[in-house]
Amino acid sequence: GDAHLLVSAAGDVARPLYSPDGKQLAFVSNRTGNAEIYLVNLDTGALKRLTIDDAACNLDAWSADGKWIYFSTGGRDVGAMQDIYRVPSTGGTPMRVVAETYINEFEAAPSPDGHSIAFVENGMAARQWWRNGHSHLDECEMWLTDLDTPGKFTQLTDPGAKNQWPMWSTDGKTLYFMSDRDGFQNLYSIQTPGLRYSEDPDRKPPT
């Protein structure tokens, strides 16, 4: 069929994500010079800006109930490391969800029930940085955090590979993700909640 222009601006538009009810589209635009998150109402064309940040905002996901939009930005951490925030889809003040200093946290994936978030982390690529006996350069580990218990983290993947793009099954019992642990980027799954992919009982989650 014919393509219809939804958003027009003097800048780039990227990362469109439908709201759960299909009535709105979240997207990232640099129309003001910095990558910020916007919403467009698909029925009326009304546009709303959700973020104003000193660094680029990366759109991650909608919550299943459509009340929150999750994103990552490096505007508040040391060395422009990314932290994960969420902002009400109706507008308001963004709130930090995961923000550990000197670590990139990104690609947030809220669980269908809204109680947990799977996310990806790695360290500072410009400087070799170590924790728990291994370095974070190109590696990406996947973690689970409990929104009802701040500071509670569960490590889902072993170090030594790039593990990214978590996505939940609709029943919330399985997480799908990409990993290059076998030398190629392939798809894996892990059962949730509370089960660690790692078999090492001594590895501790971040605090």
What would you note in describing this structure?
By secondary structure, this protein is mostly beta strands. The protein has no helices and 17 strands. It has strands at residues 13-18, 24-29, 36-41, 47-49, 57-62, 68-73, 83-88, 95-98, 104-110, 116-122, 130-131, 134-135, 141-146, 153-155, 163-168, 174-179, 186-191. The strands form 5 sheets. Strands 1-2-3-4 form a 4-stranded antiparallel beta sheet, with no helix packed on it. β13 and β14 (153-155) form a beta hairpin. The chain is globular and about 45 Å long.
Summarize the topology.
Elements: E1 13-18, E2 24-29, E3 36-41, E4 47-49, E5 57-62, E6 68-73, E7 83-88, E8 95-98, E9 104-110, E10 116-122, E11 130-131, E12 134-135, E13 141-146, E14 153-155, E15 163-168, E16 174-179, E17 186-191
Antiparallel strand pairs: 1-2, 2-3, 3-4, 5-6, 6-7, 7-8, 9-10, 10-13, 11-12, 13-14, 15-16, 16-17
List keywords for this structure.
mainly beta, disordered C terminus, 0% helix, 207 residues, 4-stranded antiparallel sheet, single chain, 17 strands
